[in-house]
Amino acid sequence: MTSMANTVRVAAAQMTSINDLASNFHTCSRLVKEATSAGAKLLCLPENFSFVGARDGESLTIAESLDGPILKRYCSLARESKIWLSLGGFQEKGPDDAHLCNTHVLVDDHGNIRSTYRKIHLFDVDVPGGAVYKESSFTIAGNDMVVEDSPIGRLGLTVCYDLRFPDLYQQLRFQHEAQVLLVPAAFTKTTGEAHWEILLRARAIETQCYVIAAAQTGRHSEKRESYGDTLIIDPWGSIVARLPDRLSTGIVVADIDLSFIDAVRTKMPISEHRKPFGYWKSASQ
């Protein structure tokens, strides 16, 4: 039987951000209100929640420091609504005018920034049948893994394209004891249709963590379209919440059961069975 003391409600949002800071903030405020009304203690917003540029270089023009007015509005929103916010993919001003950082900001229910994770894996890809992306041309990659204790459990922070690199998630779980993995994203339509769900479920299964994946959706501009499928997945790999309409703006809600994490890990103790890197020898040796 589930212990209510070990259960906490979370929400994940889906939206179509555009190149209008005020409009996006209005949408996020509405989603926060829906999440608090549902009893959620954490709301996860997708990558680029506050802004998606319509033209090359537009994101650089609005990039700000973490103490700038854009993020201050979201911190105030968290404080006034008494909810934690996962703000995935904020355009943080970089070391020069030609670069920014794609930064996942975790804000607590007092409006304080608790952690910042700068996206490690940058999306430099010629999407089959789609556009060419070169995130590294204007983004500085991060170097550090980030975990943070919260009322929702021990959170591991990632962003979008990180999802394709399982070593990061393995480290968050086995070296840093993450219980819940946050994956805010703006996946392309082509790659999302092919790989989004299966990658998310794989990360949950192999780490025995909850995975919360907040997605951008739909057409942001003439040049950009995202694959929407906002999901919450449990440590057994089961989808426990999913927005029924991939193109709609809204939230999904689920209860994170910390005792279920323990139960899965006890019954299948992969942390005890894992062999350290370097354990195996190649056949040529």
TrEMBL record:
Keywords from the UniProt entry: Hydrolase
Highest taxon of the lineage: Eukaryota
Entry-linked PANTHER family: DEAMINATED GLUTATHIONE AMIDASE, NITRILASE-RELATED
MF annotations from Gene Ontology: hydrolase activity, acting on carbon-nitrogen (but not peptide) bonds, in linear amides
Name of the protein: CN hydrolase domain-containing protein
The species this protein was found in: Acorus gramineus
Pfam families referenced in this protein's UniProt entry, alphabetically: CN_hydrolase
UniProt-listed SUPFAM superfamilies: Carbon-nitrogen hydrolase (SSF56317)
CN hydrolase domain boundaries: 8-258
Cross-referenced Gene3D superfamilies: Carbon-nitrogen hydrolase
